[in-house]
Amino acid sequence: MARPPLLTPPAWLTAGLRPAPAPIPWAAVLRASVALSAPLAVGMATHQTAYGALVSMGALSGVIGDTADAYRMRVFNIAVPQLFGALGVTLGTLVFGEGWVAVIVLTLIALVSGMISSIGAVASVSGLLLLLNAVVGAGLPMPDPWWKAPLLLTLGGLFVLALTLLGWPMRRAAPEREAVAATYRAVAELYEATGTDAYDEKRQAVTASLNQSYDLVLARRARQHGRASSLVRILAQLNVLIPLVEAAPAAHLRAQLFGPLSPAIPAAVRELADSVEEGRTGAPVLDLPTPERPAERAVDHALRHAAAVVLKADPDPYNVDDRLGRPAALRVRARRATRAVLFSEASWRYGLRLALCIGLAQALVSLIPVPRSYWVALTVTFVMKPDFGSVFSRAVLRAAGTAAGLLLAALVLSAVPRGWWDVPVMCVLAALIPASSAKGYAFQTAAITPVILLLSDLLNHQGFDLVLPRLYDSLIGCGIALVAGYLLWPESWHARIGDRLADAVADTAAYVGRAFGSEEDQSGRLRARRKLYRDLSTVRSEFQRALTEPPPTGARAAAWWPLVVAAERIVDATTAARIRVDHGAPAPDPAEVAAVERELRELADGLRGTDTLVEVRAELPGDENGVLAPLRQEVGAARAIAGPDLR
Asked: Topology in the membrane (predicted)?
């Protein structure tokens, strides 16, 4: 096997420079183009170019934050961060040019921004805009009086929101319905993959699709008073998919032993997906093979039940439960979030890291004789978002993306005359943002950089002279983030990914006991399984992020990766055994269940708190013809992986 050239960069360094295979969101492209260029046109027409630039800057924040699918969630995702952004620019404007006062205020804002970012996705974007706009307000001269800048920025965000809601009257429930239909199609692909090596990949796709569908539907239900028929119908169609998903591991095992399933099964699931999306009702007509084995009976029963519910004209609103649990009241969630922020070690740790980096950046540009620039702190803010990816890789990608964006900005600022030509140029540049964001962080940075530079030029009129200083500022900001936000914190380069995996394995052990216990009700077991799959999906994402870190973290994540896959396979095998028992297979001996559970807990204990994989036993005797035999094989394989030779 030929060795790669010595000068070839490592994969963890170049992973983010490859564009992700994602379709272009044309609606978002058109929306961004209008949202950022129209305010500029209005500003120039009224001879208030600076005002138009500020409205466009607020629209840019709205475009970046518009990541949800359901309309109600999009209102929340755009409106709430805009309020934090308005507060941020107000505080920044009040300390503009104030030296040490600006350093202290921005450092405190960074602490708060970092801490609230741990609450959730909307809070993370809100914390980002709070800090970003505070940095911009402290670094650029804003129009007087102080309230104009936050008002204009908020108007830009509201303009994006208005454009977003234009389709609400016609597509009120379409995003939720389309998401549920997409989940049905993902399940159809899962059944097509049973018995093949593609099964694990398709199961991960089903998990992600289920998470998205439940997030959309339950978020809407949390804001819906009463029981609207359309919402009840969507939730019933989603809930009834769970037995089909549960039967899939048993079908996979059956396909491995006896050959592929009938193609009529995935075809029937796709037909149900079309019925969900189009809102069709009527009597179900299914042409399915006669089931003979427990796994086949489980699939047949789940599919016929799903067809009956999907095609029913009016589901019983009092027979529709939330398999993941209905979201708690807003008051309860606010109290939990506040407690998590104030008493979480991780929240304080990230807040302090971000505050240190912003304090250093602001001190550098405010107090040391270098060209004054808000771009250093701006770069630090974007790089130091750990929930968006690895700090190290984001610093590298930020530098690469900024260099590409500055090259484009240099062409624009040198070749395009200032004035009305800025409007069509902004129209094109803004369209690149949503088109590039799905491709990766470096591509998003390359698209946003020329937009911000063009808007900055409309505020301070520096023209081409902006380009090179911004490149230097970006490199300085990346350097501060790498040193003060990464290298000085051992947890960054000694990530305790083993602890997260150990927790998942321990939860898997608890699920094995619950699956065959007599005290847990059916809905409790289903909720536990869904929560476990969601947690494993999170662990998988954390490991994928760790793979982009430099050694030793990246190398350790690569070594431990097979255990993540093994934990998912153990959950599948447990579910398959439970389904087979429910449809006629002999129940396992409780002692055998206890032995499997004990082995998993020992594996979790062996993984917890260690930086290298530890040697554990791989033997797990039991009934080779029993329903737990495949589960014991998966547990044995997981324990064999955790050996001393894989480090």
From this structure: Multi-pass membrane protein
